[in-house]
Amino acid sequence: MMDSLETNETTAIEQSSEQIETILNPVNEGAEEAAQTQPQTKEEVVAMAKEMIASQDPIDKQKADMLKATFYKLHNTETMQERDKFVEAGGEIEKFVPKLDALEPEFRALMQIIRDRRAAELEEVERQKQQNLDAKLRILERIQQLAATPEEANQHFDEFKALQAEWKEIKAVPAERATELWKNYQLYVEQFYDLLKLGHELRDYDFRKNLEIKTKLCEQAEALATEEDVVAAINQLQNLHQEWKETGPVAKDLRDEIWNRFKEASTIVRKRHQAHFEAQKAMQEENLAKKEALCEQIEAVDTEALKTFADWDRVTKEIIDMQTSWKAIGYATQKMNTVVFERFRMACDKFFEQKAQFFRQVKESQNENLAKKKALVERAEALAESTDWKATADAFVEMQKQWKEIGSVPRKFADSLWKRFIQACDKFFEEKKKAQSSANEEQKANLEQKRGLIAQLQELVDGGDNGQLIAKAKEIQKQWNAIGHVPFREKDQVYEAFSSLMDKIYKNQSENVARRRLKNFKNSLAAKVDEGTSAINTERAKMMRAYENLKTEIQTYENNLGFLSASSKKGNTLVDTMRKKVDKLRDELNLLAEKIRAVDETINNSKQ
Question: What is the pTM of this model?
């Protein structure tokens, strides 16, 4: 029977192999390979898929998944960029239809071939595993028969060795049967050796052959300590452990020594492998921190503060730079790589969706502005030929103010609308300028004519009343009224000069008329005296009533003048008219007062 040390060695070998299998991480290994061969374009993805199909090697699922994820990542990125350009050009995001990807049908066909081939490979692997299981069960059954009696063990040693060799050649079996199968194999082999009674020379020969094999395995394991590719080294070490398990025992006094040598060499390889993946994990943790920082930067973008196209363009460039940085960073930890990518993608999608929404709102606003500016253009063009210079000029000034307040319109309409509007404005103001230039010349000529009339009035005033003063003054006034406008700055001055002279003429004339009327009245009093005192008194009473009526009328006008505002031109004209009326009434009142005094003098003289 095999001693306990051989059993312990076998158990230790199994534990060592399990540790190695635990350390090995196919996902990390695939991620490392993918990181080294990551395609940068869809064309490269398609080319790698074709190479995978053309190769006779089994389909690498992780590589196939990487190719699929990379292709559609690049495809979606192109679609997003195409959509952003469509929106920036003024299109509505709801109406965006992505272009057909010329490479996608070919890629889908390639991936279907890869899936079908992998499914066939997996089916073949499972079929082969089942065949291997059946073969090993047959070997176990025969070894169990050989270990049943000492006679069978001694007579069929060569057959036993052949069965061991055949067992070693048979590879994988279904995973759920592997442990049970191995334990039964070890049990039956130990039972066989326990019953074996052959000579020591044959047994020692078997031990020496096993020692040679295990020594070579130790040397190969020790050589792996300098292997640059630590992943390849750990894979090779796993194969060495499998071969160790399938190799029989060595001499009892060498078992601990040879096992410790192999275990120490395995430990060095495992430590290098562990250090490699710890460094890789540290790098992935660092990459995760960088990617999370990029996520935070995008999530911190305050889109509410972006009010102009320039603001959005600036931040869009920053986002694209972050996306470029993301691609250059590399893989994060296996657990978080997909999570952080989804976070980054969602942050980018959110930004570009808000950008699209901003452009939609801007487009709606610009369309409203476009309608408003078109209305202004049409109105400006309708008024461009108007000759109502003052009112139309005011209208154009107001339209220009409204134009500035309206805001931007779609770029493709902006220049043409502005040209139409400014051409209409320029046309009107150029015509107005020409008309005003002509009017200015005419007004200057009118000014000279009115100054000549003022000079004629001054001569009439200086010449005194020769009986023709009023007639000549009226003729001059008729000529004055027939003359058109004068320059605005000179208008008040010439009007005041003309009005002052006319007032003097009419005042002098009025005084002369008043004196003549008073003289005629006094002369008529003589006839009244002959008629008697009652006739004079009646006349006086009549004049007193007229006098009081005039005083009342004057008082009414003066009260009304107190309520009038002289803040406007119209108010000034009305006030001036009323004042002239009051002055005329006062002259009448004064004339009545003179007549009453004349009557009183006549009455007093008649009493004497």
Answer: 0.44
